[in-house]
Amino acid sequence: MIDKAHALRILEAVLYASETPVPTLVLSQAFEDEYDTQHDHKITNAQIESWLNQLSAKLADSALELIKTATGYRIQVRPKYARIVTRLWPERPVRLSQALLETLSVIAYRQPVTRADIEQLRGVTVNSQILRTLFERQWIAEDGFRPVAGRPALLVTTKYFLDAFGLQSLEQLPELTEMNQIIHDLNDKNIE
Fold it and tell me: What's the domain range around 83?
């Protein structure tokens, strides 16, 4: 049997080295060569999940945390320390505009929606560049067409949207009444 401490170090190394969330299946592949040749059987998802829970507990008193997103797991700096890290190594990602955040909020909370739905709810025309940016970041996708004249595309959020905002599912979205404050706060931060 593989040593638990060794397994936790393997998971920690893989998660730390990855720039994106890592699915359980990929994490199990980290053990294939070593474990299969020694014991001729595979690590189960349940075993990976158990080790991830133990790794999360191990990181509890650390500046790092293990989080689960829609597409897998990642290790990140706890929000409490993120400001310090950002101050020392400032990255200048593109700021998200108020209009983009409002458009994204409408899609997230009302999906599936058409461009006309967004314009009606926001009360202004949606700039094509906003939708292009959301598509390029893969935060939204087309998911069919509304069966009306012109067959407008239905827009929905994607798993990459969930990952970008540290969510596992849409159920974790904050209450709609909190969104104005969140949008204001996000405008004061840089979001990658």
Answer: 4-88
